[in-house]
Amino acid sequence: MTYDFIVVGAGPAGTKVATRLANSRAAPKVLLIEGGGNMSEPKDRLLFDRWTTFMEYPRLKYDYYSEPQKSLGDRVLPCTSGKGLGGSSAINFSAWTIGPKADYDLWAKLVDDESFNWEHAQRRLKAIERYDFDLDTEYQGYSIPDRNVRGTDGRVNIELPTIWESTVIPQLDGFVAAGWRLNGDLNNGFPLGIGALPSTSRKAIRETAASALLEHVPSNLEVLTDSQVERIIFDGARAVGVESNGKQYKASKEVIISSGSVNTPKLLLLSGVGPAQDLTKLGIALVSDVHGVGSNLQDHYLCCLTYELKPEASDWTQLPKGEAEMAAARDAVVKKRSGPLASLTNLLVMGYSQDEETLKSAEFAALPPAVQEYIRDPTVPTREIITHNPSLVPGVDPDKYYLCVVTLGMVPQSRGRVFITSTDPFVAPHIDLGYCQHPFDRRNMVESLRATMHDMEHPKLSQFVQKPWRIPKSDSDEDIWDFAKGDIASGYHLSCTCKMGQETDDMAVVDTKFRVKGTQGLRVADMSVMPFTPNAHTMAWAYMIGEVAAEKLIEDYELDK
């Protein structure tokens, strides 16, 4: 079985690469091979389930766990990753965040290639998006997307719901009263402020990379599921195919790995691409000594502040109570896009801030001048917040109602790594997140949580609260950090383990054409290539990485001529 191109991994990046190649004028023969299955039915994609899908659908995830985190009292944290058609877009929170203008320009600067800057990113994102601007007049003062830069002709549906939960506008007004700026378009490159965030969805049904891009595929694109790739096949240093389930699939042109920031370095290492000293110890034949494979791991870390709400302050009182009633409500969403579940949890209240206390800290002053300059850019946040129901924290009273204010630390400075200690492709890799090992990250988490606690004390927000349910004992540094050590979890934005860099960067794994160092016919296209974790949820970035990689492949092979 021989193809022109083989793409490994059907998440947003891999699916984008595969479909763009297959739909090019030359119509090359493309194989998209995915380790998981297909669960793309609307009943499995209710946006109502956005917070719990990754827990309730075990077939849709790799259940990975971190190494004990030294800065967090040796806690072991889940590092869940998407599995199946759509990848993590099938289990994430469906947040469509583009991030700061400065992030794109920094990417271009670090790799010395202007094609990654903000101007080019806007063009690519516009081509991806199918934005629905239809919004009731009562909401239009809170959401003002720029129609000149938002796309309407792409394949990925993006929307704000037709009906907002009744708590959304009071929350937005409350945060504005507490000092936040209302931001009517969090995706205009200037995300600072509080706003209503659009989701990848269509009428209360989640949009995944599979539903957006794989429902109608050309005959020259083959999609193979339940086929975990066990190794890349090389002829010398040239990638010529992949092996899965005892079968070999050959590529006459290129193999593109899009398996994510954990599984991509794992597959490269198993195939002989990585640090020579590590591979030699495992008896893996060396193809290319690439020091950076698995290194430079970055992620956003988060904490949940949980408040018990007054019953009148939650729309969740409308939630069907019995199994039969819940089943009927789910059916109403699938068949009619109606009922209580068609509006619950369909909108995210999200905010980004650049907190002055963090910037005044000694930990910030100790950062390199170039890093300080970047963080001070007026588009770059140090904190993100999201408010939502239900609580992400276990142990709540099922007969009461809660608000969880998730606080994420942005601009992380700590670094971790992904590594293997077994040559068995079905053994999980080791993931050392390295959370909060850098003093700046600890300081930023403390200041971010303190700022969020103070926000929630404002009368316009505290009026909805019955009592705090799980927050730090006080706003002292000691109490906040003691709380954070026991609460910090992954933002599931793992990135940078096969980072892109200039030729002089010894830790770079790929160049600006996504080609893996020391090899031929092998590229990587997913969040692992990022030089740093962007200050946003990473789904939009993954789609865009797929778009850029496809552009470069199409140009190199003249597929559109």
UniProtKB/TrEMBL annotation:
<feature type="binding site">
    <location>
        <position position="229"/>
    </location>
    <ligand>
        <name>FAD</name>
    </ligand>
</feature>
<dbReference type="GO" id="GO:0016614">
    <property type="term" value="F:oxidoreductase activity, acting on CH-OH group of donors"/>
</dbReference>
<dbReference type="Pfam" id="PF00732">
    <property type="entry name" value="GMC_oxred_N"/>
</dbReference>
<feature type="active site" description="Proton acceptor">
    <location>
        <position position="537"/>
    </location>
</feature>
<feature type="active site" description="Proton donor">
    <location>
        <position position="493"/>
    </location>
</feature>
<protein>
    <recommendedName>
        <fullName>Glucose-methanol-choline oxidoreductase N-terminal domain-containing protein</fullName>
    </recommendedName>
</protein>
<keyword id="KW-0274">FAD</keyword>
<dbReference type="Pfam" id="PF05199">
    <property type="entry name" value="GMC_oxred_C"/>
</dbReference>
<feature type="domain" description="Glucose-methanol-choline oxidoreductase N-terminal">
    <location>
        <begin position="260"/>
        <end position="274"/>
    </location>
</feature>
<feature type="domain" description="Glucose-methanol-choline oxidoreductase N-terminal">
    <location>
        <begin position="82"/>
        <end position="105"/>
    </location>
</feature>
<dbReference type="InterPro" id="IPR000172">
    <property type="entry name" value="GMC_OxRdtase_N"/>
</dbReference>
<dbReference type="GO" id="GO:0050660">
    <property type="term" value="F:flavin adenine dinucleotide binding"/>
</dbReference>
<dbReference type="InterPro" id="IPR007867">
    <property type="entry name" value="GMC_OxRtase_C"/>
</dbReference>
<keyword id="KW-0285">Flavoprotein</keyword>
<dbReference type="InterPro" id="IPR036188">
    <property type="entry name" value="FAD/NAD-bd_sf"/>
</dbReference>
<comment type="similarity">
    <text>Belongs to the GMC oxidoreductase family.</text>
</comment>
<dbReference type="InterPro" id="IPR012132">
    <property type="entry name" value="GMC_OxRdtase"/>
</dbReference>
